[in-house]
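Hey, sorry to bother you again with one of my protein questions. A protein chain has come my way and I'm curious about its shape. I'm sending you its amino acid sequence along with the backbone structure tokens. I owe you a coffee for this, so here goes:
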Amino acid sequence: MNHFTLLWFSFICKCAQLGIEGYGETLMKYDVVVVGAGPSGSMAAKTIAESGAGVLLVEKHQAIGTPVHCAEAIWAGVLEEVGIEPDPRWITNKVKGGYIFTPQGEKVLYSTGEPAGLMVERKVFDKFLALEAGRAGADIMMRTRAVGVIKEGHYVRGIEAVREGERFSVEANVVVAADGVESRVARWAGLNTLGKLSDTMSCYQYEMVDVRLDEPDMLEMHFGRKLAPKGYAWIFPKESDVANVGIGIRGLSERHAKAYLDEFVRGKGSLSRAKIVEIKGGALPVDGPLDRFVQDGLVVVGTAAHLVDPFSGAGISSALRSGLISGRVISQALKEGRYDAKKLLEYQDDFMNRFGKVWKRNVLLRKAFDRMPDDRLGEFLKLLPEIREALYPGKKVDLGEKIKFIVKKAPKLAKFFKFFLTEGFHD
């Protein structure tokens, strides 16, 4: 073998070892592989890569952030919480609060702040997070679809994937499932991620221009059984005359979400001149977090773990939080050489210790909401700002005081809150 041939042979071997595209990759090895480059996946990849670990982030689509399945609103405080500096490149609007519209047409001020929330351009925001993961050292592979997991006994040891028609394996100490609702990666690993249709919100949304907005810094949420069965319609301003106009209904509704949305748009005067520039849709689990979102060698984050607010359907904040918390636990697990479920369970315990009571409250709040006819729903919504404040699990008010609040403020709603008060909020 001459010198040139030897060099060429060494080069091919190195390419195969590193998994360089086009050189017959069959096996790649990383400390962690993250499936899905949404906010939770990119946040986890960034956090783990910052610890010096080898991370691969795979995304099945050809562009990160598309298609959009989201109303694009986020609580402003979460960015500081997870260490993200707000960037005008992906912030389209600052929101002070919102209005609730009852089935009877009454307008209720829900909250105010400076700002209470932000509207983001998800196509830009999600890509920004993936860029941050890449800058931290994570490798990124686009148009790469997970088709199975590698298991050794109870342990998940990597994934099987396909890119550009080529199948290959990625071995890893930990796999992060960030692949959305009804996560296939988690199911392949043995976790049950399938929710009931009755606990799933079907959403349809138009981004519209030439919308007449009296207060472009305020969100609108419209309720009513005929308007949006067990859900609500929304107008979320992105610019002075641009808004996301959408609807979320429960999976057992008589008609498709689009039919309800079109009816809402036709009946809303502020939308009479508006034109559709983008159509978005998707499904959200509103049954609360999975009972378990870790197992040996596997962590489930974001929507894949059903970390979507059961009452509002919001998911970006919990996606970022779960990505950060899981990333920190995985980084420590790598240092200790421990990838068992007991170690990884520190992520679930940390997340639920911080937010579990709020999730439980909102699941019960949704169930109370589901039981109400429109007349009672109107009463409920008018009191919702006070109800949520009084019943917030962190508030130092005993159970007796909570019951007195309901009886005094909303005696006709007491029966809807009986289980809510006795089961959900023991102090």
Remarks:
- Residues 341-370 form the longest helix (30 residues).
- The chain has three domains: 24-66+124-194+288-339, 92-120+197-285, 363-424.
- The chain is about 35% helix and 30% strand.
